[in-house]
Amino acid sequence: MHVLLGGEDFYLRVWRLKSGEMLYEDKFMNSVPSVLCWPRGGGSNRSDYFPGAWLGSREGLFYVNTS
């Protein structure tokens, strides 16, 4: 399971919940993300797989590839 956060510093961060490891960090837009969508994992063997996510903000719609 993963946690995705987008904050007022305009960074997107992804953590693996089980280990607490940060998997991804990037500042790619200049506004706070307000909408987030990502694909659901495909089963127990894919629980650690996180291919990417769509984020929406006032600037537009962005796809972030975290792999």
Short description:
This protein is mostly beta strands and 67 residues long.
Tell me what you see in this structure.
With 67 residues, the chain is mainly beta. It has one domain. It contains no helices and six strands. The chain has strands spanning 2-6, 11-16, 22-27, 35-37, 52-57, 60-65. The strands form two sheets. It has a three-stranded antiparallel beta sheet with strand order 1-2-3, with no helix packed on it. Strands 4-5-6 form a three-stranded antiparallel beta sheet, with no helix packed on it. A hairpin with a 4-residue loop joins strand 1 and strand 2. It is globular. It starts with a strand and ends with a strand.
Q: Helix and strand string, N-terminal first?
A: EEEEEE
Strand order of the largest sheet: 1-2-3
Q: What is the global morphology?
A: globular
Number of strands: 6
Total domains: 1
The main sheet comes to:
3 strands, antiparallel
State the distance separating the first and last CA atoms: 15 Å
Structural class: mainly beta
Mean pLDDT score: 79
Q: Give the proportion of residues in helices.
A: under 10%
Number of helices: 0
Beta-strand percent range: over 45%
User: Spans with pLDDT under 50 lasting ≥5 residues?
Assistant: none
- Gyration radius, to the nearest Å? 12 Å
